[in-house]
Amino acid sequence: MSELLSKRKSPDDQGRYQHITPESAGWKHVGFEAFLLAAGKTLSFNANIDEELCIVLVGGKAEAVLSGNTLGEIGDREGPFDRKKPFSLYVTAGDSATLTATTALELAVCHAPGKSTFPSRLIAPGDVDAEARGHGNNQRYVHNILPDDKDADSLLVVEVYTDEGCTSSYPSHKHDRDAPPNETQLEETYYHRINPPQGFCIQRVYTDDRALDECMAAYDGDVVQVPRGYHPVATMAGYDSYYLNVMAGPVRKWLFSWEQDHAWINTSEYADKHTG
């Protein structure tokens, strides 16, 4: 099995079934955790003095306390495939948040270096921009939870929906060079959910010289780690895909390069074949 693929594990006593750290991934910036909580269970998250968090309610509802302030109940979808925009909490360096599940609750907790530049805040659905991308069999729908034009020190967080039989994160692109304004070096995790849940999608991670070239079947709840290189996703017939991306690196800007062999998929030559 590829070292880039973290299989879904049995939940521990906190309900955590994914736990990626910079040390376990062999990189410097991105950490990721996934939790399942039963109604009535409580979890507290304390950001270290040098890290920030983005806690995404992937599914379910919770009573939330942020920076000691009670927010009341947040959450507006049973699961990600409701396709509603999510509620999230941005937790600045050194701050804390507590969530008490009022229904079954699925949480994604995103970690990256932080400096306490910006205050903690609730990211409500109305704060999340949505956009459709692509044409034909290369279409996806995106919720920009924490894009590079919204306040954070390091974190970039986005969720993506891809219908059965389509590609996503495609044409192949990469962001592994610290060379703005052309490209930024961003580590990335993909937290995969599949509907129906017995399905899988395919993700490839590869570099131009093929020194890295891994192709993985990602099942429901798996995480793919992208340290460098291109990283397209392909769905299978009968199964829709959701993934939550977490990115961070030396510069908080999403600047990337297309793989030239496939960049034509972005052009009118391809789009015109799939429009009336």
TrEMBL record:
SUPFAM superfamilies: RmlC-like cupins. The keyword NADP does not apply. GO terms for molecular function: glucuronate isomerase activity. Keywords: Isomerase. The keyword Acetylation does not apply. InterPro entries: Deoxy-glucuronate_isom_IolB, KduI/IolB_isomerase, RmlC-like_jellyroll, RmlC_Cupin_sf. It holds the Pfam family KduI. GO terms for biological process: inositol catabolic process. PANTHER family: 5-DEOXY-GLUCURONATE ISOMERASE (PTHR39193). This is 5-deoxy-glucuronate isomerase. It comes from Enterovibrio norvegicus FF-454.
